[in-house]
Structures are given as structure tokens and as C-alpha cells.
């Protein structure tokens, strides 16, 4: 009821409000929801190693003094073929594009630990960017802590930006000092000849210092002593319109304004990104009351968290056929939240997998989901899950 009143009521506007709407897009499983949760400081979006954990667009709200950031956490951009394979709703194909229409800034998230996909943006991501070239975009390289050789980041930056950042050509000039016994940190510096105005503190984005590297997992005991890349000064050019033939030959997007390197799961350099986003906010009315953390209802948060655990513990395509029905949602005798949810599955074999031998799987799902719900709602939660074959 409190959440409903906050969402329906008028925002408590400060005298000079500022706002920024941020769309986070990327391939499935790039870490969009993990990053959103870290920016919010509390888990309200589902996270799983399985693709397509996020099934619809949802908004997270960060309010800091006179500034409000609205995070549009979107489903991973996918193709109609893959959507049909995973029995995904049609909204999953359109929601990211709908979010872009309302965004002031777009974050393109890339999982640098995936050596199969990290060297180029997916065609779906490029298509999305090309349809909204007027929206400022920044590139966020995620999971940099999983890279043993940080020099790969230089190559990735060059590929994913088509060699152009903030309208300037990127020239990679590497200086190597080989020393097989060296345990020195590798220095990754990407400097910009003429930084744009309203830039956040220089410990992030395109200008990386040694201190920032330590925070973003860029320190390494590689053989490399130093590696530098700099940008030659060229006049920034506005983004042009790209047709299908142009996108066919592109690996990256040549209109990124900034580059961030972070590890969303452990929170490394996430605060640096957050401070940058706060600085990019523009004068404008708030959309939400300062007490709102997400546009989702508590029931939606609950469903998503339970579904996250089902995805985590059930194999292959099985979890995508589970239907969740909430049978009870009420306050218990000691003030705790009592939730009873029925999980409907299409086959008896799926039911046996979800329950597990001696009820071990369903018990683990209920325990972990219950703990996450307590952290999300900041109250005691008693969760009971039942499994039935849907008729």
C-alpha cells in the first residue's frame, strides 16, 4: 500500500530539480540487471546466469539531493528466432526500443569475459543505436576483473568504438617493457586531447589513472610495464544515419562519448559511473517521489526474484515454461510478510525436477528467494512454494 501511494502521488520536487533517464542495453546476460542493482544499492531486479532473466522493462529510481536518475532496465536485445526458441513474449523484442524513445542517455554494456562476443556489438544492439543516433551513448565494459590480460581492453576499445570516441580518432600507441620476472602493474591509460565539458572527475571513463585501475580491476602482474593509447584531435562530428548495408560491415559504434571499465558483480568502479551519471542530469521535473526505489509493485519484485532462482536451479529450457500464481500475500501475526506461491509446470517430469529429491531443490529456492525478499522489502518474509502440473 505504501508503494502504491508513493507511485500514485506527486513527486516531492526540490526547488531546482534535475533528472536523467538512462536506458541500459546489451546482449542477454551482459550484466544489465546486476549493474542496475548495484547503482540502486539494493536488489530489485532479477539476476541469473541464464539468458532472458529480465522479461520486461522496469524502472529503478536513484534520488540524490536535487537529482533523480531513472534507470530503464531492459530485456537483452535478441532476435525473433531466439525469442521464439525461448518462448519469449513479443514485448521482449520491443521493450528495449520503447525504452530508448524515453532515454536521455544510453549505456551499452559489454561482457568482456565472453571471448566469443566481446569483440563486436551484436547486430541487435547496433540496430537499436542506429535508430536513435541523437541519444548520447557511453560504452561500459563489464566484468573486467575476470580478464587476466588487461591489454585485451585496448583491442576491445578499438573494435567496439570503430576507432572513434567522442568524435575523435583513436590512435593506439603501445609502449612495451618486457620483463618476465616483473610483478608490476600494467598501466592502461586512455587520454583525450580535449576533454568535453561537464566531465566527471578524471579517475574514470576515458582518462584512467593508476588509482582508478586498481579500483576497476585493471591491475595485473602481466609482462607489460606500460600501455598507452591516445586520441588525435579532430573536430567532433554529429552521428549520421546508418542503413542496413552500413551496419553489416560495422563491429562497433563510432559515436560513444565515454568509456567505463568496471566489475558490476563486486561493485568495482560502479560508484564512479554513478557520480558521472549524476553530473549528466539536466534541469527537469522528477517523475517519482524520493521514497521510490523501483516502479515495480512488491508482487512483481517477488515474482522476479522467485523466477530468478527457478532459472538458476532448473536445466535448459525447463524454467521458461513455469507459471507463477500467488495464492497468499498478507501480514502474519508477528508483522512478517507471508507469501504462498503456486508454481505451475507443463509436465510431471518438470515437477519432479523442480521439487528435487526429498524436496531439496524447491526448499533451496524458497530459502534463497526468501532471503532476497527480506533484503528487498527490509522486513521478515515467510515464503512457501508449491508445485503443480498445470491442467
From TrEMBL:
Residues 26-33 are annotated as: G1. Residues 142-145 are annotated as: G4. GO terms for molecular function: GTP binding; ribosomal small subunit binding; rRNA binding. Residues 18-284 form the Era-type G domain. InterPro entries: G_ERA_dom, GTP-bd, GTPase_Era-like, KH_dom-like_a/b, KH_dom_type_2, P-loop_NTPase, Small_GTP-bd. It holds the Pfam family KH_2. One of its GO terms (cellular component) is mitochondrial matrix. Keywords: GTP-binding, Membrane, Mitochondrion, Mitochondrion inner membrane, Nucleotide-binding, Ribosome biogenesis, RNA-binding, rRNA-binding, Transit peptide. Transmembrane segments: none annotated. Gene3D superfamilies: 3.30.300.20, P-loop containing nucleotide triphosphate hydrolases. Its main location: mitochondrion. Residues 183-245 are annotated as: Disordered. Residues 73-76 are annotated as: G3. GO terms for biological process: ribosomal small subunit assembly. It is found in: Mitochondrion inner membrane; Mitochondrion matrix. It is a peripheral membrane protein. Probable GTPase that plays a role in the mitochondrial ribosomal small subunit assembly. Specifically binds the 12S mitochondrial rRNA (12S mt-rRNA) to a 33 nucleotide section delineating the 3' terminal stem-loop region. May act as a chaperone that protects the 12S mt-rRNA on the 28S mitoribosomal subunit during ribosomal small subunit assembly. This is GTPase Era, mitochondrial.
Amino acid at each position: 500500500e505504501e508503494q502504491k501511494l508513493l507511485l500514485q502521488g506527486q513527486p516531492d520536487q526540490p526547488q531546482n530539480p534535475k533528472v536523467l533517464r538512462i536506458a541500459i542495453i546489451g546482449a542477454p546476460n551482459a550484466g544489465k540487471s546486476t549493474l542496475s542493482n548495484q547503482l540502486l544499492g539494493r536488489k530489485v531486479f532479477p539476476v541469473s546466469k541464464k539468458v532472458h532473466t529480465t522479461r520486461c522493462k522496469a524502472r529503478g529510481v536513484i534520488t540524490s539531493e536535487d537529482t533523480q536518475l531513472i534507470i530503464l532496465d531492459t530485456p537483452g536485445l535478441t532476435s525473433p528466432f531466439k525469442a521464439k526458441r525461448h518462448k519469449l513474449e513479443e514485448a521482449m523484442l520491443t521493450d528495449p526500443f520503447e525504452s530508448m524513445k524515453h532515454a536521455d542517455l544510453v549505456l551499452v554494456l559489454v561482457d568482456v569475459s565472453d571471448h566469443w562476443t566481446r569483440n563486436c556489438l551484436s547486430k541487435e544492439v547496433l540496430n537499436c543505436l542506429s535508430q536513435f543516433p541523437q541519444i548520447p551513448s557511453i560504452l561500459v565494459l563489464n566484468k573486467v576483473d575476470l580478464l587476466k590480460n588487461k591489454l585485451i581492453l585496448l583491442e576491445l576499445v578499438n573494435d567496439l568504438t570503430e576507432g572513434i570516441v567522442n568524435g575523435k580518432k583513436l590512435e593506439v600507441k603501445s609502449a612495451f617493457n618486457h620483463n618476465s620476472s616483473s610483478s608490476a602493474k600494467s598501466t592502461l591509460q586512455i587520454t583525450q586531447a580535449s576533454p568535453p565539458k561537464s566531465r566527471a572527475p578524471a579517475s574514470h571513463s576515458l582518462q584512467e589513472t593508476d588509482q582508478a585501475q586498481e579500483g576497476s580491476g585493471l591491475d595485473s602482474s602481466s609482462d607489460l610495464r606500460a600501455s598507452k593509447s591516445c586520441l588525435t584531435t579532430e573536430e567532433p562530428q554529429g552521428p549520421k544515419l546508418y542503413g542496413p548495408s552500413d551496419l553489416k560491415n560495422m563491429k562497433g559504434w563510432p559515436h560513444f562519448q565515454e568509456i567505463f571499465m568496471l566489475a558490476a558483480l563486486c561493485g568495482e568502479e560502479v560508484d564512479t559511473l554513478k557520480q558521472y551519471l549524476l553530473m549528466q542530469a539536466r534541469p527537469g521535473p522528477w517523475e517519482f517521489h524520493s521514497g521510490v526505489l523501483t516502479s515495480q509493485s512488491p508482487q512483481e519484485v517477488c515474482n522476479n526474484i522467485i523466477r530468478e532462482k527457478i532459472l538458476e536451479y532448473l536445466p535448459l529450457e525447463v524454467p521458461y515454461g513455469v507459471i507463477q500464481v500467488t495464492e497468499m500475500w498478507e501480514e502474519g501475526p508477528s508483522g512478517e510478510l507471508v507469501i504462498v506461491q503456486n508454481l505451475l509446470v507443463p509436465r510431471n517430469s518438470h515437477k519432479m525436477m523442480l521439487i528435487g529429491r526429498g524436496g531439496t531443490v524447491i526448499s533451496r529456492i524458497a530459502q534463497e528467494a526468501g532471503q532476497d525478499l527480506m533484503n528487498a522489502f527490509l522486513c521478515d518474509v515467510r515464503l512457501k512454494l508449491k508445485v503443480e502440473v498445470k491442467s
